[in-house]
Amino acid sequence: LSPRPGDSYGVLPRPFRALVLLNPQSGAGRALEDFQAVVQPMLAEADIATTVFITERPHHAHEKVRDEDLSQWDTLVVMAGDGLLFEVVNGLMERPDWEDIMKKPLCILPGGSGNALAASINHYAGNDHVAKKKLLTNCTFILCKGLHTQMDLVSLSTASGKRFFSFLGFGWGFISDVDIDSEKYRRLGNARFTLGTLQCLAKLRVYQGRLSYLPAVPEQGTPPAPRDPPAP
Q1: For the segment 15-52, what is each residue's pLDDT rounded down to a tens digit?
Q2: For the DAGKc domain, which residue ranges apply (predicted)?
Q3: What is the distance between the alpha carbons of residues 56 and 185, in angstroms, rounded to a whole number?
Q4: Is CB count within 10 Å lower at the N or C end of the chain?
């Protein structure tokens, strides 16, 4: 559920049914507590019936949305950080009926260390910059109003043949190491990234890679083949 300027909002039917996928370990480990204290009362007031699925391990949500019959729910709600939504999107894209199921609205409720998508939605909805429970309240209010619009996905195929889908971007090298290495400091909330950055700076790793790209395609003619950038 991500309103953007200029989009015409679609309103979900009332009452509607939501599957909430919640990671209790997200952020500082308060996702379930915040859901019960902030989100549940608002959803009940808005006449939104919820089924809460609490993840117990990595890729649990991925498997749930990949294999489950989702026809009984009108929307999928992720109460966690960006990582759990990444799992959900990639699980949905592995379904044989992915073209139809991806038309089902997705909602992100911030409960993680980094809540980039939720913050972006809050911004494009015209709200002031906020964080923590205020951001959670704003995003829950968007869900309660049933507002939704289209969201772009990025597709990446690796040399090993794996394919991933992202709603924000892909990281490699230093940024990815910060994210992965700071996982053990999850209880610190957003401060984990600061500590992870300092540790990665101290290690001074070297990353070697090869970049290929497609030049801009002219309006007429055959698209050119990928090529390596010129040497510096």
Answers
A1: 889 999 999 988 778 999 999 999 999 999 999 999 99
A2: 13-160
A3: 19
A4: C
Locate 102 and state its tokens.
């991806």
Q: Are 172 and 209 in contact (CB under 8 A)?
A: yes
Query: In the chain, what are the domain boundaries?
Result: 12-155, 171-206
Rounded distance, CA 175 to CA 158, Å?
18
The answer to whether 214 touches 229, Cβ cutoff 8 Å, is: no
Closest Cα partner for 76 from 151, 25, 4, 26?
A: 151
d(Cα 30, Cα 47) in Å, to the nearest integer? 25
Q: Which two tokens stand for residue 93?
A: 């894209």
Please identify which of the residues 34, 82, 177, 179 carries the catalytic annotation.
Answer: 82
User: Do 77 and 45 contact (CB within 8 A), yes or no?
Assistant: no
Model's pTM, two decimal places? Answer: 0.74
Tens-place pLDDT, residues 117-128: 999 999 988 899
Question: Which CATH class for the 12-155 domain?
Answer: alpha beta
Nearest Cα to 178, choosing from 158, 214, 142, 203?
203
Question: Greatest CA span in the chain, whole angstroms?
Answer: 61
Calculate the alpha carbon distances from 77 to 45, 175, 179 in Å. 17, 27, 23
Backbone dihedral angles phi then psi of residue 46, each to the nearest 5 degrees: -90, 5
Q: Which residue, chain included where needed, has tokens 């401060």? A: 191
Bridge partners of 80? 110
Q: Angle CA(58)–CA(60)–CA(64) in degrees, nearest 5?
A: 160
Looking up tokens 């709600």, which residue turns up? 77
Termini Cα distance of the chain:
43
User: Is residue 15 reached through a cis peptide bond, with omega within 30 degrees of 0 on the bond before it?
Assistant: yes
